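Support request, priority: normal
Reporter: lab tech (M.K.)
Component: structure prediction queue

Hi team, I submitted a job for RNase H type-1 domain-containing protein from Gossypium trilobum yesterday, and the status page still shows it as pending. I've pasted the exact input below so you can check whether something in the sequence is tripping the parser. The sequence length should be 136 residues. Please let me know if I need to resubmit or if it's stuck on your end.
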Amino acid sequence: MTGRDISKRIQSYLTELDGLEERTLTLSVDRGHIRPERNMRVRIYFDAAFDKRSSRSVSRLVVLDFMGEILASKIVMHNAISSLLAAKALAGLQAIQLGISMGFNSLAIVGDSRTIDFQFVHRLENECAHTLAHEA
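Reply from support: The job had stalled in the queue. We restarted it manually and it finished. Here are the results:
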């Protein structure tokens, strides 16, 4: 295979990826009448891959119930991403948005990034940010 052939294959692959902006995959399991409750605790695992040369990233999300069964998965491609940190942060945000859109009240967001850390603090400890958000 020549360098030109490899280049054509890569270009073809990138063109194919451009057409895959967002794809949501949902696994449907017949559990009879049992439906997940809104207050059920679920885990959403996220990861991101980043291509520095093309400034593109891919977010991958998997939603698991408390028994470890897959409730949903999602893959999202992004353009104009500046760094791996931005790609990971965006994937974490999408994990939160996915959980909210599925109607869950309690989520555990799980990823391998040590650069993103969310922690709960009571409103009184976060008075300044709360006031700004309320005024906005």
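Residues 84-101 form the longest helix (18 residues). Confidence is low (pLDDT under 50) at residues 29-34. Let us know if anything else looks off. Ticket resolved.
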